[in-house]
Amino acid sequence: MFLGIGIGNYAPGITRFILSLQIGTTSIPIAIGLILMMYPPLAKVKYEELGKVFQDKKVLGLSLVQNWIVGPF
């Protein structure tokens, strides 16, 4: 974090370069970083067991309510 602040302070041109890497309101470096952060958890998903997850409607419903209704609050 300190390195980023120092670079931005002593090399202000880098800020313009990073801002040029946007498409609309999406920052491409941030998007790439988020994808790289999310890859390890997604790689550990046991996709062959998804059928079992969707069979238990009670647990699936509770999970959806917690993640999409309770979580945002």
Write the layout of secondary structure elements.
Layout: H1 2-10, H2 13-19, E1 22-23, E2 26-27, H3 28-43, H4 50-55, H5 57-70
Antiparallel strand pairs: 1-2
Question: How is this structure best described in words?
Answer:
With 73 residues, the protein is mainly α. It has helices at residues 2-10, 13-19, 28-43, 50-55, 57-70, and strands spanning 22-23, 26-27. Strand 1 and strand 2 form a beta hairpin. The longest helix has 16 residues, at 28-43. It is elongated. The mean pLDDT is 88.
- Runs in which pLDDT lies below 50 for 5 or more consecutive residues are none
Q: Which structural class should the secondary elements be placed in?
A: mainly alpha
Query: Per DSSP, what share of the residues sits in E-state strands of 2 or more residues?
Result: 5-15%
Rg from C-alpha positions?
Answer: 20 Å
Figure out the total of helices: 5
Q: Separation of termini? A: 29 Å
* Dominant shape: elongated
Secondary-structure element pattern, one letter each: HHEEHHH
Tally of DSSP β-strands: 2
As laid out across the biggest beta sheet, the strand order is 1-2
Average predicted confidence as pLDDT: 88
Largest sheet: 2 strands, antiparallel
Helix content: over 70%
Characteristics:
73 residues, mainly alpha, 5% strand
Can you describe this structure in just a few lines?
By secondary structure, the chain is mainly alpha-helical.
